[in-house]
Structures are given as C-alpha cells and as structure tokens.
Amino acid sequence: MEFDILIYLCIIAFCSGFVDAIAGGGGLIQTPLSLALLPNYPIATVIGSLKIPAFSGTAIAVKQYLKKAKINWKFFSLLATISFISAFLGSFVLTIVNNDFMKPLLLAILLILWVFTYMRKDFARKSLVEVSVRNRYIYGILITIIVGFYDGFIGPATGTFFIMGFIFLVGYDFFKASTYAKLINLATNFGSICLFLMKGAIIWKIALPMAVCNGLGGYCGAKLAILKGQKWVRYIFLFIMFIAICRFGYEVVDFD
C-alpha cells in the first residue's frame, strides 16, 4: 500500500472521529471514502477494518461524555448485550449477502427525521416525550436490535439512528441520548469486530493507524461538544443528517 493512501485514510479517520463524537454519523465520512481509496479489497474486509478505528474513537468520546452524564448501568448492560449480538449477526449477514436494497429505505427514514428535527427547536434542550420505565425498556430493546443489526450489516449513520431512537422513543434529551448512543455503539462495534476477527477480515496495517487518528478526533469532538453546549450541537447534527441524505440519495439514484 502506498504511504500517501495511508495518510489520506488517517485524515479521514480523524475527521470521522471528530464528527461522530459531536453528532454521530462519522461512518458517513469514513466508510465511503475508505472504500473509494481501497477499491482492490473486498467490501466486507474494508468495513471490518474500519470497525477498529470506529471503536477507538467512540471509546475516547465516551470517556469525555461520562464525566457529565449519569448512566443507568443495569439498563445499559441489557442494551449493550443485545446490541453486541445484533451487530455480530448483522456482520455475518454482510459477508454473505448484498446490502444495497436497504439504501432507499434509509433515505426515506433520514428525510423524515431531518424534517422533524428541524421543526423541533427544543430538540437539544429537553426530552420530547414522557416514557414509562416499562416502555423505556421495550423501546430500548427494539432500538438496539434493529440499529445494532444495521451497524453490523451496513454501518454509516448508526450513531445518528441511536440518538434519534433514544430521543423520540426512550425520551432522553440530546446529551443523554448521545451518551447512551456512544456507549451502545461500543458494543455494536465490538460485536462486529469479533465476527471479522473470526473471518480474518481485518487489515491491521490500516486499522491501527486509523484507530489512533479516529481516537484523537473523538477526543477533540467530544471536548468541543461539551464546551459549546447542546443547542450548538443541534446544528451540527442537522448538517450531518443532511450529508447522510445526500449520500444515500446519490446512491439510490445511481443504482436506479
């Protein structure tokens, strides 16, 4: 592999970690650009390798968020276990089927969520719904099954989907939703990593340098998000969702 390609990949990893720590969606930067720079590798191998930097960036961001957030560890442990299994199964399916049929559905979902988020000016400041403890567990389990499988299967915008689910279904405010999303995203990444390790589908000479850069980006992004406050984060979140919509829209049109 040429050294300049590795440099580009490391820059991409830093930007991905930075964005993901603020509003989720770092995979929207890291995954398509890395696939474009590594056209000679199987898609599953590239995605498997990208799980290593994704894990490191999220882990470092989580450390920053936990300084400000209170976590129900019993609730988190249940969701983390479920999301680990879901992501493991999603990554297994990725190795045997084509995932292109998901993109039109994701495009429609992202459009709806973007409009709703834009219309709700209080999105980042308080909970949008009141949810009972029972329903919180039910919705939390459903979110981790569906989004966890998606993360293992496709990946980009996983953090965004987790955040939206924890806000609109579980009833958390943006900051708490972001913290839970990143914690559970660690479990989904780890589930995928275990599967790809078993398959021998990780390119370590790419994964390790990118992991360092993604972690640095995650640290800087989390610091900035905490410093600037949740209202500012909302605008970044809308921007990242807009990028996701453009990307999936381009691919859907391209496939047609």
Shape: globular
Stretches where pLDDT is under 50 for at least 5 consecutive residues are none
* Secondary-structure-derived class: mainly alpha
Find the count of extended strands (DSSP E, 2+ residues).
0
Helix tally equals 10
Radius of gyration: 17 Å
Helical content, roughly?
Answer: over 70%
Q: How are the SSEs ordered, and which strands pair?
A:
Layout: H1 3-23, H2 27-37, H3 43-65, H4 73-94, H5 103-119, H6 133-153, H7 158-168, H8 174-199, H9 204-228, H10 230-255
Helix pairs in contact: 1-2, 1-3, 1-9, 2-3, 3-8, 3-9, 4-6, 4-8, 5-10, 6-7, 6-8, 7-8
Structural description of this entry:
It is built from 10 helices and no strands. It has 256 residues and is mainly alpha-helical. Helix 3 packs antiparallel against helix 8 (174-199) and helix 4 (73-94) crosses helix 8. The longest helix is centred in the C-terminal third of the chain and has 26 residues, at 174-199. The protein starts with a helix and ends with a helix. The mean pLDDT is 82.
